[in-house]
Amino acid sequence: MLPTMKISILLAEDDINLGFVIADQLRAEGYHVSLTTDGVEALKRFNEQPYHLCIFDVMMPKKDGFTLARDIRQINSDVPILFLTAKSMTEDKIEGFNAGGDDYLTKPFSVEELNLRIKSLLKRVNIRTEIPEEKVFNVSTFIFDTENLTLTLNGTAQSLTKKEAQILKILYKFKNQVLPREVILNTVWGQDDYFVGRSLDVFITKLRKYLKEDERIQILNIHGVGFKLEIKA
């Protein structure tokens, strides 16, 4: 039995009409569906809230489904990914599985088949769907509220921008580990070009300023690789 709480699905399909049809059918089945039309927006949505399942069209603008899956697998190895595609060649299916996909559905497909694939994939996340995502974290002596975008120390709250909160959240998730720049850029901005890279450096400088009151916290720049949020016990 699946848990009674509403299961969230991230659907990325560049065919607007097909996307609406699939989303409506899934909502009729009781799922909560977030619909996007390109891979960049889908990656940003994925970072903003938890999803129990992802359904990605392969051929999409800005970021294709395979690339999107690879980016997601760098930050989440568990969420099931189902690819939708007009391609049926074995080589394409192999690439999809190598990109981190769990299942593959070739267009056109029936609603019944889609529902069966979804239910099969959700069986492996039964327990996880019962656990709500944490909204407040203790970052050493700071209280980090991801929902209200605040970082509080000794009762004094520092307001964060949405981007600052997203960056700190992913750094905290991988605390005391080196996190590649491209992972942060793809997760927060959906791309990793030079200009957003410069923006990331600015936000990192601001976060260091906010956190400097606690000497046990450092955001280290690992040259040529990325960043590491180091929290000493």
Explain how this protein is built:
The protein contains eight helices and twelve strands. By secondary structure, the chain is an alpha/beta fold. The protein has two domains: 123 residues, Response regulator (Rossmann fold); 96 residues, Orthogonal Bundle (Arc Repressor Mutant, subunit A). A hairpin with a 4-residue loop joins strand 7 and strand 8. Helix 6 packs across helix 8. The radius of gyration is 19 Å and the shape is elongated. The chain starts with 7 loop residues before the first strand and ends with a strand.
Name the features.
alpha/beta; Rossmann fold; single chain; 2 domains; 233 residues; 4-stranded antiparallel sheet; Arc Repressor Mutant, subunit A
Q: From the 3D coordinates, which CATH architecture of the largest domain would you assign?
A: 3-Layer(aba) Sandwich
- General shape: elongated
Q: Residue share in helices? A: 25-40%
Number of domains: 2
Order of helices and strands: EHEHEHEHEHEEEEHEHHEE
> Briefly, what CATH class of the largest domain?
Alpha Beta
- Model regions low in confidence, pLDDT < 50 over at least 5 residues: none
In DSSP terms (H or I, runs of 4 or more residues), the helix count works out at 8
State mean pLDDT (0 to 100 scale). 87
End-to-end gap? 41 Å
From the 3D structure, determine the CATH topology of the largest domain. Rossmann fold
Largest sheet: 5 strands, parallel
Q: Going by CATH, what is the homologous superfamily of the largest domain?
A: Response regulator
